[in-house]
Amino acid sequence: MPQLLLELFSEEIPARMQAQAARDLERMARDALAKEGFLPEALKTFAGPRRLTLVAEGLPAAQPDRHEEAKGPRVGSPDQAIEGFLRKTGLSRDQLTERDGVYFAHTHKPGRSTPAIVAEMVEAIIRGFPWPKSMVSGTSRLRWVRPLKRILCVFDGEIVPFTVDGIESGDLTEGHRFMGSRQSFRAKDFDQYQDGLARNFVVLDPEERKERIMDAARTLCFARNFELVEDEGLLDEVAGLAEWPTPVMGEMDPAFLDLPPEVIRTSMRVHQRFFAVRDPQTGFLVPHFVTVANIEATDGGETISKGNAKVLRARLSDARFFWNEDLKTRLEDRLEKLKGVTYHAKLGTMSERVERIAALAAELAPFVRDDAETKSKVVQAARLAKADLVSGMVGEFPELQGIMGAYYAEKEGLDPDVVDAIRHHYRPQGPSDDVPVQATAATVALADKLDTLVSFFAIDEKPTGSRDPYALRRAALGVIRIILQSRTRLPLKRFASADLLAFFADRLKVLLREQGQRHDLVDAVFALGDDDLVRIVSRVDHLDRFLGTEDGKNLLAGYKRAVNILRAEEKKGVLPGGEPVDMPNAPVEESALINMTGHIQLEVGKALDREDFEGAMRELANLRLPVDAFFEKVLVNSDIPEERDNRLRLLVKVRDAMGRVADFAQVTG
User: Fold this and answer.
1) How many other C-beta atoms lie within 10 A of the C-beta of residue 142?
2) Which domains does the chain have, with CATH numbers?
């Protein structure tokens, strides 16, 4: 079937926007085609420094004719309603049909050609494209990320004709700005287009550009017995900067290697977009870097390398200045400056935040490790953790906050645990980031995140939908991960409001769901009112295993049957109170369940006191057969009121015994 090829060619598209632009182009095209009844066999988009490309396979040459039926008002409705329906359908009253006392409109729409539909679709996409930032240029009123220069649009080998703000569609494109042919070339299909770009030094696919960069960069390093310091974020960026990416190795002044490696790498990455290089034996940086050029230089990249080395030297000289100046002031002496830094208009200064974190850290310390020495280190680390925010280096490189404070603390000879806590108190900053494991660091990290959550919830700045400007979801997940990994038995109710506790429950469900756990089991355990996350997760894990057994499945079914009966009876009036008794002439199954329920309540209570959740589930399993037998042989709604009341009391007792382990009513399985 015919193929659609579209290229939107412009001046340079910022690298950070390219991946989302490709996704947006695919989404908008797929939605527009679906609206017209088209379902492509395949649709793919590509983004690069100067072009967005789309190829769709398997489109028909035209729409089929369509017959549509629209239901209108009832016969005899007011004229106003009928006239409105006629305007909507474009028909006259005598063209309507009647069925079952209702007017219907039947319309026949001949199918349009695919090129006509594509022309409308492309113009709508261009005019409505959701660039984060856009511009107009010259006399054009068209908004695009950068000036749009050319539109290639071909369907089934033929140009789809249309014009957007003076730009006529065609079948012409061009290659690399410097290395490609000065002439544009024609492309009638995707194969011809991709091959033409390759001959003119353009790698279309961003994944292929990334692979090309990594292969060449690793080869350059391997040839010198070095190792590339890989950086996925940097790779994404440089792949969006070069159409014909060509890695080049450069040299830096080895005198700068006495700077902290994070400073060197950040300076390379942020300002120059260089990859760092290290010795694979020692792991230390070596005085080299890899830059990605957009051309194959005739001198092998020597000029590029020297020019980049010169610029890097200037950047690292600035970094050395900040480093030397920062070392002249102790962290403790920087705290006064934090009084002039506003944290949030409603939450005071950074200095006030530091005092809150230090007080909270002291309160949290006994739960993480209960000893006086740890508490002393925790308070010191919490007070100094934010001091580097007013340092010159962090002012230049904000991403080094915490890291630079640790280096300054180390230079001052502070305790290694305090240094480690300052370095890692922002962790984890994302799902792939490590959790601080050392007790002092874990405590300060907990205090930092809890203060953020408690403070912003207190001023009603909670996440809403997809909006979370203060990264509170990330902070809550960080708290949960630290607590679970350190197995800290923290009573969250002591520190969190009810709505914040519910927020933690929601985040815990997200975390466990990502690990393959069922969210309804988290609800079933949280319903008990427990706020110890370690205990909650243990309960959920054992509950999941129990419900995976035959005993668990059958007991859950029995529980739900009992609860349904109790709910039905509650609608009639108050359930009878008191304990069930072994009545004379009671069925043996009723007596057996009374005895077993009493035993289970006692043994489950003992197991829960020991936090032996496996044992508690094992005891619950003993209820399965008596419950099954009871429902099979005993009529709960007996005609004898005394028997009915006694059996309802027994079902209440079964429900309550199981309810000590979890709220099984929340379990959906």
Assistant:
1) 17
2) 3-62+114-199 (3.30.70), 66-109 (3.30.70), 206-314 (no CATH), 332-502 (1.10.3210), 549-666 (1.10.730.10)
